[in-house]
Amino acid sequence: MLTKYILFISLLSLIFVKLPSARSQCVDLNLFDHTQRHGKLCPQIEDSLKKGSSSLLNPIDAPLEQIENNNMIQILFTCDEKNKPELCKKAKLAFQNVANVISDTLDFKVPIIINASFTQICGNFMNCDPTKPGPLGAAGPSRLIPLKDDDGKTRLYPQSLVKQFKLEKHPEFSEVDIQAGFNSEISTFWFRGDPEIGVDQVDFELVLIHEFLHGLGFLSSWDDYLSLDNPTALTPFPSFLITTDDLSSNIGPIKFTGFQEYPFDRYLSLTKDNIPLSSITDKINQFANSTTTFANEKEFTDAFTNSSQYLECKQMLQNSITRNSIVFKLPDDDLYPIETSLVPYKSGSTLKHGDYDSFSNSTDFLMRWKSPRQVTMENLLSVNGNDTNYINPIGPKTLKVLEVLGYTIKNNNNKVQTDNEVKQDDNQHNLQSTSGTESTTIHSSTLLHVLLMTITILLF
Ligand SMILES: *[C@@H]1O[C@H](CO)[C@@H](O)[C@H](O)[C@H]1NC(C)=O
Ligand SMILES: *[C@@H]1O[C@H](CO)[C@@H](O)[C@H](O)[C@H]1NC(C)=O
Ligand SMILES: *[C@@H]1O[C@H](CO)[C@@H](O)[C@H](O)[C@H]1NC(C)=O
Ligand SMILES: *[C@@H]1O[C@H](CO)[C@@H](O)[C@H](O)[C@H]1NC(C)=O
Ligand SMILES: *[C@@H]1O[C@H](CO)[C@@H](O)[C@H](O)[C@H]1NC(C)=O
Predict the structure, then answer these.
(1) Running DSSP on this structure, what letter comes out for residue 135?
(2) Which of 108, 128, 179, 182 could make an S-S bridge to 137, C-beta 3.0–4.6 Å?
(3) Largest Cα–Cα distance of the chain, in whole Å?
């Protein structure tokens, strides 16, 4: 019965993908400056990935070096090899190990390309306060791509996830999927082979895995975009405020087309009344429709902060600093508590991680907002609740979050021993893939999801 339903949708998708294509507004993120986001017109194109992944890297002519280690994660590595050959060697090895851990855990359908640099960040990419410890680094999706979900809402998907859906047609991809940059000027990082890890050191590999998961889509869009320095109210991503370099007409009046969620946000819910955050987004988006224009950003902000919708946004800030108020809903009524205990609100940490205390001393320690000090990949016992059986730094609940987002988890018992065995037989069906050329086993709800998105990729 299920199969029939899916075939029906496949047929529909065949009809709809023939619609004349249009251009989508993608968003390219700036790694070290969250205020800088570029709108990017990304025309709908036929899937280039089918032509073979070996040609993927061709467009990048590079002083960048590709680390040859792994078919499913390709790393373009930049480092100051001239001045720091030893350090670069260690960093490169760490990237290789991390690529192996991630590709042993996740079953990528299409290779992920990571632009990774280990360089001086302060002065080059951002200004740093010399009296404070330098930043460790950051990673994130290089491009967010709008796709219409099967609940009718358009969300900004990280490119690495869009690639896994193998859509026949999709907005144009950026050259790389994940941008990652780490600070080579600090002594905080501990590398494999170094003397014993110090009390204030963090294992570089653990930091990398944490950041890569953000790059894959472990990321909420809720933040205070309108008042970054003094958070007062939270909204999803204001994609209507970004300007597009190659679209001069965009510099004119602002059309309110709504705040946009990321796929992660779809599964967030308030604990007190079980209300999905998506319905709060809906309420906030009733502020205006696209027939209303604002002369400039200030005019928009003034009107918005004066609106009844803004009260919802202020309440969201309140929720985000109240412990246990927001959860990520997993299948089977399982919950993944989200970080909402930091007071004051901490942009980049609040809502973008698992709850610190809930995941302390547990195998899901990795996505807490602070990296564990004096802990190495080789021995996670002091941080994972003294569990000798589960040696993967990515915990079972964290994997479920990634699975809900649309990644496929490998059933790799050597590395990953969960107490709840993945119920393969119940959840997976043998289905014809959309390309029609091969038969693949795919999570049925994911397939539905994908097919629906194929039909309705957003046309701006
Ligand atoms: C990769 O990152 C470096 C910064 O380290 C940047 O200069 C370069 O443009 C990036 N390449 C791509 C293809 O995004
Ligand atoms: C847009 O909003 C205006 C003013 O609030 C309203 O008059 C109009 O009917 C709305 N248009 C649509 C298409 O909803
Ligand atoms: C805000 O609302 C008040 C009362 O409704 C109104 O008098 C004022 O002009 C509004 N301000 C802006 C900037 O819209
Ligand atoms: C984790 O374990 C350590 C040592 O056993 C203990 O001091 C700490 O309070 C525990 N943390 C939590 C959140 O249970
Ligand atoms: C970890 O578990 C072992 C045995 O399973 C026990 O001997 C040891 O004391 C435990 N360590 C901590 C810190 O709880």
Answers:
(1) P
(2) 182
(3) 64
